[in-house]
Amino acid sequence: MRLPRTRRTAIARTAVRTGLEPRVRGTRSARETRRTRRTALAAVALASVAVLAAATLPAQASGPANQVPAQANGPAGHGPLRAQAVAAYDFGHPDPADPARERDIGRSRTPLTLINGGSAMRVDDEAYRGSSPALQVRQQNPATAGNDDWKAGTWDEAGVGSLGAFNSAKAATVMGWFKMTGDNPTLNSNTANPTDRYGAIGLAGVLSGTSDGHAVRALLELIQVNGELKLVALGRRLDSGASQTFAASADWQKVLPRGEWVHLAATFDFRYGTMALYRDGKPLDGFYVTPGDPWELTTTPAPRRASPTDPRGIKIGGSFPQNTRENNACDCRMDDLLFLDREVTAGQVSAEYRRMTRGH
After folding, report:
1. Distance (Å, rounded) from C-alpha 73 to C-alpha 30?
2. pLDDT, position 78
3. Buried b vs exposed e over 189-221: b needs ≥16 C-beta within 10 Å?
4. Which of 171, 194, 212, 219 has the greatest number of CB atoms lying within 10 Å of its CB?
């Protein structure tokens, strides 16, 4: 006959007080039950600690030093363009083995060299709320012929294989934040005239497949157009061909006023020969500089693309990333530079700007 529940409980409590452990077939003792419960509670507690640690500890990078773990949206809500970029640099990811190199947080993992200034070129200046450090580029000794200007880039005469997405590319986009910090254009250190200034201000671009360190496939910069300095998108579809330039109509100093962060983008469609410029998420009015068909589109059968060569590198803040010559130095700061192998639409440029400045 099975004892009532209250009676069984009383017997168990008596056993605990007297040290006896009644063994009822098919049942556990009260002490075994409590021990099982304590073990289960401890396991649950350990599991909770593990889950909490996994949620709060940062992800650990693996692989080579220039490899960066996939990142969630940044402080101000970076959109998909950063993840889609062939190369992306926010100057907040120095190579642990060499602070003079910046890790690429884009798809290609192409490291960038901070030329002549090293880690000192990273400065605490937010392009927008919550952004990472900025890159300072500038001329060092304008009165002396040399190649000591602060600039950034990557270079390989045989072609940078990690930038192969620009090989036979249909289109390209160069975009980022820029701030004029000095007297631009800078003095030309390559001439004997002490008052001569460069005819261009280098911002950022992808080199062509046969470049000497100056010629480009897709470039955002300021150059002389009809005797007047203009913000331009300058593209070259074929390595052996001519370039085309799309120049902003507005006064460059109003587009890039000294001491003010501005978001710029330049797009290039190598299939149809179209280019565009954007400032703070809005299209800029402009005009094509070279008449005719400099990209040889009418004589090239479809599908029309860029030359089937890997770019020889990226140049930022001036030409010749192999550091053999100073040319078109820029006294300015840059941040969040993106190099994409497609034409970003006007809506995407606007959305990217809003995400960074408004967080949505």
Report:
1. 53
2. 60
3. beeeeeeebbebbbbbbbbbbbbebbbbbbbbb
4. 219
pLDDT, position 37 = 53
What's the helix, strand, coil split of the chain in %, to 5?
20, 30, 50
In the chain the first and final C-alpha atoms are separated, in Å, by 72
Instruction: Mention every residue, 6+ apart, whose C-beta is less than 8 A from residue 289.
Output: 225, 232, 244, 245, 246, 247
Q: Are 222 and 262 in contact (CB under 8 A)?
A: no
- Whole-angstrom Cα distance, residue 31 to residue 12? 9
| Count of residues in the chain | 360
Residue 359: predicted pLDDT:
76
Closest of 102, 18, 337, 84 to residue 203, by C-alpha: 337
State which amino acid sits at residue 21.
E
Please give the CATH architecture assigned to the domain spanning 80-358. Sandwich (2.60)
pTM for this predicted structure:
0.80
Q: Please give the distance of CA 284 from its chain centroid, rounded to a whole number.
A: 23
* Nearest to 307, CA basis, from 100, 130, 169: 169
Q: Residues in the chain with pLDDT < 50?
A: 1-3, 5-31, 33, 36, 39-77
- For 205, 292, 349, the CA distances from 355, given in Å and listed in that order, are 24, 39, 10
**What is the residue extent of each domain of the chain?**
5-56, 80-358
- pLDDT attached to residue 73: 40
